[in-house]
Amino acid sequence: MLDLPLRTAPLVFFDFETTGLYPYRGDRVCEVALLRMRDGAEDLRYTTLIDPERPLSERSFQVNQISAEELNGAPRFAEVAGMLREQWAGPVLVAHNALFDSEFLRSELLRAGLPPFDMPVLDTLAIARRLYPRRSSHSLRALALTLGADPPSHRAMDDVLALRVVFGAMTEHLAEAGVTTLGGLLRYARGFIPGENAPDVAPLIHTALGEGRMLRVRYSSRALPEPTERVIRPIELFRQGNTLFLQAYCYFRHDLRAFVANKLEVLELTDDVPPTPDDWAET
Question: What is the pLDDT at residue 187?
Fold first, then answer.
């Protein structure tokens, strides 16, 4: 599949609206939308409100304007999760700021008792930052206004429709840079040039990335020069300048972090999720 041309590759554009910004503090998905493309044509469109089983934060309501009344009677995520997995089977997922949506997806699937998704994810935010380095903003709205899409409204399907148009325009510019296949774009989004060899990192990092598993590591940083042991869930390797980073969810910080790859001492694979601190528990 990685050799498929971008214009015909199977893709699922998706977006979530959420009750807040932090799934580890109990925030939930309250709307989902997806649009599936096969052979360059749309073959599925789906959207639904989701009962998040908790109130929206004031900040989230100001953004998406989804009211409690609208959510009354909506299905819970667990009720649609199996169907979503079937619709996503095979294609590559595409989202803007995909790390945000992917972490909510991981959290919701875990709550539903389902395994994590294992399909590749393309982040149009990361692609745009590399493709258009001189632009002052790489938000979906800014890209939509300059690439011919209707501006998104912060409702899930409107954002998905804008994302599809933005992605289509970006693929034309990517072709000029020599990126024409799905595999080439996955590497380009991570900062690697076409044809560059796979990064030389600890084998267990590749295993964790390929199997969606966690790692127990030891790491030191400028903030904590004394090495600390922590559990991380690797998401992707990417290069910034001459430095190779591992993007991962860190259960020590309970946040996404970028680790300098050659400073990581990998101890072991693990499937034990560390407990969430009491003061971050869901209320």
Answer: 79
